[in-house]
Amino acid sequence: MVLVASSLDNVLAVTLFSILLSLINGKSGSIENIFWLLPWGIIGGVVVGIVAGLILSAFFEKRYTNIRATEKALIIFMMALMITQVGDIIHASSLVAIVMVGFVLVERAPRVAHEVARKMNVLWVPAEIVLFVLVGMDVDVRNLLSLGVGGVLVIFGGLVFRSLGVLLATSAAKISWKERLFCVFSYLPKATVQAVLGSVPLAYGVPHGEVILALSVAAIVITAPLGAWIIEQFSVPLLDIDLHER
Fold this sequence. Notes:
Layout: H1 2-24, H2 34-62, H3 69-90, H4 94-108, H5 110-138, H6 141-146, H7 148-169, H8 177-186, H9 192-198, H10 200-203, H11 209-239
Helix pairs in contact: 1-2, 2-3, 2-4, 3-4, 3-5, 4-5, 5-9, 7-8, 8-11, 9-11
């Protein structure tokens, strides 16, 4: 539940970020357009993703034994690039579509999905290192230090409202209060999405883009180790995990 919810949460956040960035750059008209761009972006992304996922699952099921895992991963990469182009043309969220492709593949072609997932996990290790190195190269330490108490309050204020949102979202779920509290803790760490998006405003020439990037890096530096430590310390008592079974 946490994995799926966090994935959809990231997709929604990136979709909103893309729409707002388009509005700032004047590519999406006025602010009123956000009220139709957001639902259309999500619905259009879902439809595109389902169609692409069905095509891929049918193709892989017929040629499962003839294509190696690396080739399957490359085909999915190419499909993701095509989806990105289609999303830009019809103003649909390509990220939602790509996530939907994964959902469809794991339901219709689970052998392929798990095989490709193992390859993707291997590829992500060097890709993650490159990502954070590039972000670090863009950060001006003076801007990072200039954030001060105000920057820290912005980060923790966002975490407070995020935690309240998690509690509200899980209020109807059939889980215990300890599991709901663990869901709150699992949403505290920030890393990859902030690393990817933090430098985009600076690259697009958005005013004070260097401050936005510095704030994104500060969010990673503060929340990633803190959240990881909290999850490690409280996962056993909150989820009633038997360490001997573990």
